[in-house]
Fold this protein.
Amino acid sequence: MNEPEHTSQPMFPDDKQTGEMHGYMCKVDFECELGFAEGGNTVYPSVENLKERRKCTPQCGIVKVAVRCLEVVQAEKYTDE
């Protein structure tokens, strides 16, 4: 598989070799909804942040995930031109 030509790296990646950022998700969202939820799924920056915002974690569980940019599909535009 060829790597995409244009990639973007996060400012502070958790894994310097892959550029991956790590985060946390509700385990049920990860297993059942990731890729299918029309409004998207949230990745939280810490276990504590996830537990504060999602009261389902005692029943659903928590997973640690890795996110990596593969390609910039649309670049940012900061001007009003």
